Amino acid sequence: MNFDLTDEQQMIRKTIREFADEVVAPGAIERDRTKEFPKDIFRQLGEMGMMGLPFDEKYGGAGADTVSFAIVTEELSRACASTGITYSAHISLGGAPLNLFGTEEQKEKYLVPICTGESLGAFGLTEPNAGSDAGGTQTAAKSEGDDFVISGNKVFITNASHAKHLALTAITGSADGKKEISAIIVPTDAEGFKVIDNYEKMGLNASNTTELVLENVRVPQENLLGKRGNGFRQFLVTLDGGRIGIGAMAVGIAQAAFDRSLQYAKERKQFGRAIADFQVNQFKLADMAMKIELARTMVYKAAWLKDQGRPFSKEAAMCKLYASEIAMEVADEAIQLHGGYGYMKEYEVERYMRDAKLLEIGEGTSEVQHMVIARHIGV
Amino acid sequence: MNIYALVKRTFDTEEKISVQNGQIAEDGAEFIINPYDEYAVEEAIRVRDEHGGEVTVLTIGSEEAEKQLRTALAMGADKAVLINTEDDLDELDEFGASTIIAEYLKDKDADLIIAGNVAIDGGSGQVGPRVAELLDINYVTTITELKIDGDKATVVRDVEGDSETIEAQMPLLVTAQQGLNDPRYPSLPGIMKAKKKPLEELELDDIDLDEDDVEVKVERVDVFLPPEKQAGRVLEGDLQDQVKELVQLLRNEAKVI
């Protein structure tokens, strides 16, 4: 048993922490207000080689591990969760399925621009009537000669405005009266493909969340990603990895909320002393610190299992569920501790709460995480 | 070009300094490459990228300093040398450090040596110039710009807010001032490769030095923290009166004029 990070992981944490503090954090409030996508930050992350973090060097990646991915996602999210989710989705939803299921040719063509940061990674699963319930999928890909002709709608798709291509699920036929769902890589500039970026969200305002409209979008059948009919199963595997990213994001937001609370509690004076001198607040801060520590440990464990090539679905669900719920609790306490100031945007903590809420919803709601865990514990 | 960057492991600038038993407590403190030395490493990498050659980062210290060397390798330096004095020396001053460095460098045919202007801990700014003296090569301190053309360097140096341009013959030692460059973040591929780059570890023996050769010349009498900052006072009233009062206070209370 060894809880130490490796030398590389420590150096990655130090580097990305500095970058997050110096480059990402300063504009976070402003971007939340203006909804401006942090394009320049991603250009710099690309220059630093962070965009292909876990992927093989031959595709332009850096060959780092999942623990390092969790560290980078946590640190970016601590400074700005919109930046964190963009990064997490880019790697774990955009790049990972190509890396896991793509042919050599597909990786050359589609994974390389993701590793360099030329294209952001995105992934099209959720539909108006389908997400974790795959049976509701309505997007259909009809075979016509050597092509698929795809029509349908996808909702809440992260990063699509900045992606040159993405993998999405579509019905490619039926077998035994069940929908056959496959994953297909689609260039976003294909004719009939519209990316609509006009959601008004509660939080994560500087991240790009889009609706995809496909009307008879024609792609060659060689764009099939993985096995025909395996689309949904592949996405479940992808989501397992994505949940580690969500867990890491949650830890980052919670850490930011805690850091601000601790500082504020020591500075703010009421009734003649710092509010940190009151035991009620000390207990609150102790609880926050404990929850964050537990959540981070669980995120690291899930990441470590993945790096060992061991099953990690249950742990990924647990870390996602626990970390996202404590992120909300910690953000809530952080606002409470700040009193009236906490309700003001200038003090940042209210943003943490708005941003954290998505983590209990995206990549499987908390309820779905409970289902996944229940399935794994033999009930 | 054969380039050396001299680096020192120092306290993180964010770290709170505390003194215990006459020593600065290091427990749990974060350490970094001395920020001025980071400019030196960055400049060395830039010069190499422009003119070719090799960058070696050099430090004196304990095993712990390997982290800072690896960081410099992750930034893009090619090789690292750690002169480990942990077992040989309890104390090291500017004389000792420069003797060790010069002794190591004397047969290395360095074309360019870049050091930080000062280390943020000791703050003496002596080691760089001393090394140059011992090696009998030119040196320019507190530089903010460096251009190299053949065996000539054109250097802009910071002189108390103004600047001075100097031409110097290589081999040359310069010390880096803030403003020389904007050090890069180590790239992720750089971090992943840093461990595979050569890091040579030497002891005093390996460079034919004895403990006696680097015996400290400086005696440390005391270590103490600066007095805690008192709350400020805001003067009130008529501007004329305020000025009068300020002068009074500066003369009689603060006794600075």
TrEMBL record, chain A:
Q: Which Gene3D superfamilies match?
A: Acyl-CoA dehydrogenase/oxidase, N-terminal domain, Butyryl-CoA Dehydrogenase, subunit A, domain 2, Butyryl-CoA Dehydrogenase, subunit A, domain 3
Molecular function terms, GO-annotated: acyl-CoA dehydrogenase activity; flavin adenine dinucleotide binding
Acyl-CoA dehydrogenase/oxidase C-terminal domain spans which residues? Answer: 229-377
Q: Which residues form the Acyl-CoA oxidase/dehydrogenase middle domain?
A: 122-217
Read off the InterPro entries from this record: Acyl-CoA_DH_CS, Acyl-CoA_Oxase/DH_mid-dom, Acyl-CoA_Oxase/DH_mid-dom_sf, AcylCo_DH-like_C, AcylCo_DH/oxidase_C, AcylCoA_DH/ox_N, AcylCoA_DH/ox_N_sf, AcylCoA_DH/oxidase_NM_dom_sf
The residues covered by the Acyl-CoA dehydrogenase/oxidase N-terminal domain are 6-118
Q: Which cofactor names does the annotation list? A: FAD
Keyword entries, A-Z: FAD, Flavoprotein, Oxidoreductase
Family matches, as Pfam families? Acyl-CoA_dh_1, Acyl-CoA_dh_M, Acyl-CoA_dh_N
Among its keywords, does the record have Oxidoreductase? Answer: yes
Give yes or no: UniProt keyword Ion transport: no
Report which reactions are catalysed by this protein. Answer: a 2,3-saturated acyl-CoA + A = a 2,3-dehydroacyl-CoA + AH2
Family the UniProt entry places it in: Belongs to the acyl-CoA dehydrogenase family.
PANTHER family documented for this protein? ACYL-COA DEHYDROGENASE, ISOVALERYL-COA DEHYDROGENASE, MITOCHONDRIAL-RELATED
Q: What is this protein called?
A: Acyl-CoA dehydrogenase
Which species expresses this protein natively?
Bhargavaea ginsengi
From TrEMBL, chain B:
The family classification in the record reads: Belongs to the ETF beta-subunit/FixA family.
GO biological process: one example: carboxylic acid catabolic process
Q: Which GO terms describe its molecular function?
A: electron transfer activity
Keywords in alphabetical order? Electron transport, Transport
**What InterPro entries does the record tag this protein with?**
ET-Flavoprotein_bsu_CS, ETF_a/b_N, ETF_b, ETF_beta_N, Rossmann-like_a/b/a_fold
Purpose = The electron transfer flavoprotein serves as a specific electron acceptor for other dehydrogenases. It transfers the electrons to the main respiratory chain via ETF-ubiquinone oxidoreductase (ETF dehydrogenase).
Q: Is this entry keyworded Electron transport?
A: yes
Protein's organism: Bhargavaea ginsengi
Under the heading Gene3D superfamilies, the entry gives: HUPs (3.40.50.620)
| Name of this protein | Electron transfer flavoprotein subunit beta
The residue ranges of the Electron transfer flavoprotein alpha/beta-subunit N-terminal domain are 21-211
Q: Does the keyword Ion transport apply?
A: no
User: Which cofactor does the UniProt annotation name?
Assistant: AMP
Extract the PROSITE patterns matched here.
Answer: ETF_BETA (PS01065)
Quaternary structure and interacting proteins, as annotated: Heterodimer of an alpha and a beta subunit.
A GO-annotated cellular component? cytosol
Q: Which Pfam family would be a valid example here? A: ETF
